[in-house]
Design brief:
With about 210 residues, the protein is mainly β. It folds into 2 domains: about 150 residues, Elongation Factor Tu (Ef-tu), domain 3 (Beta Barrel); about 50 residues, no CATH class. About 10% of the residues lie in helices and about 40% in strands. The chain is built from 3 helices and 12 strands; from the N terminus they run βββαβαββββαββββ. Strands 1-2-11-10-7-12 form a 6-stranded antiparallel barrel. It has a 4-stranded antiparallel β-sheet with strand order 5-4-3-6. Strand 10 and strand 11 form a beta hairpin. It is extended.
């Protein structure tokens, strides 16, 4: 079956565990998702399922044709590997019940946009010394290259520029609670993205021991 879901980040709160400790959690609306396409080894060379999430009124004609069998209009589509794709069919629902408390998951989202930012905010630079006449160097990047050799700015140098709106994956987040009736996942700590942003949740690919 599919190893992941599309969902929406609702925000953060805290819950009390059985031992009385408070845990900061992110609340996700995980699904329900609808299977919009099934790929098999015989036809496509690999097994996977495509999930649709959300609702929209307007789609292009090709998109409407693609989703006709699924019986809905979904603005968000995502393909997930599936271990037994032949056992599922287009139109089938997938919800938060594929996860359980204690599972480790990887969450992928688009980070918040911060606009144009300097090197201190964007890369965590220390800045220059505000002394000995350098009162305007506090948040400056310093030297960005040599003179004659190589005589240019090296590609990939960390400089000021657009900050945020990048796809980021946070791995091995622990599932604290699951509410299948309301399709809610409570995950320990923070996940990337703004509230109401769409995220991808899947079972962790690489578990790093008991840590999370």
């Amino acid at each position: 079956m599919t190893i992941g879901l599309l969902g929406k980040k609702l925000g953060m709160t805290q819950v009390f565990l059985d031992d009385g400790t408070a845990e900061s959690v992110t609340v996700l609306e995980a699904g329900p998702c609808t299977i919009t396409q099934v790929k098999t080894k015989a036809k496509d060379g690999y097994e996977a399922v495509q999930l649709g999430f959300g609702e929209t009124r307007r789609l292009s004609k090709p998109e409407e044709g693609h989703l006709k069998r699924a019986g809905g209009k979904f603005p968000h589509l995502k393909e997930f590997p599936a271990s037994d794709a032949v056992a599922v069919q287009v139109g089938q629902k997938v919800d938060a019940s594929i996860f359980k408390a204690g599972d480790l998951v990887d969450v992928t989202g688009i980070t918040k946009g911060r606009g144009y930012a300097g090197v201190v905010k964007r890369h965590g630079f220390k800045g220059g010394p505000k002394t000995h006449g350098q009162s305007d160097r506090q948040r400056a990047p310093g030297s960005i290259g040599s003179g004659t050799t190589p005589g240019k700015v090296i590609k990939g140098l960390r400089m000021s520029g657009h900050y945020g709106v990048e796809q980021v994956t946070v791995r091995n987040i622990k599932v604290v609670r699951v509410d299948p009736q309301r399709n809610l996942l409570l995950l320990r700590g923070a996940v990337p993205g703004a509230s109401r942003g769409v995220v991808t949740v899947r079972h962790a690919k690489k578990t790093l021991g008991k840590g999370s």
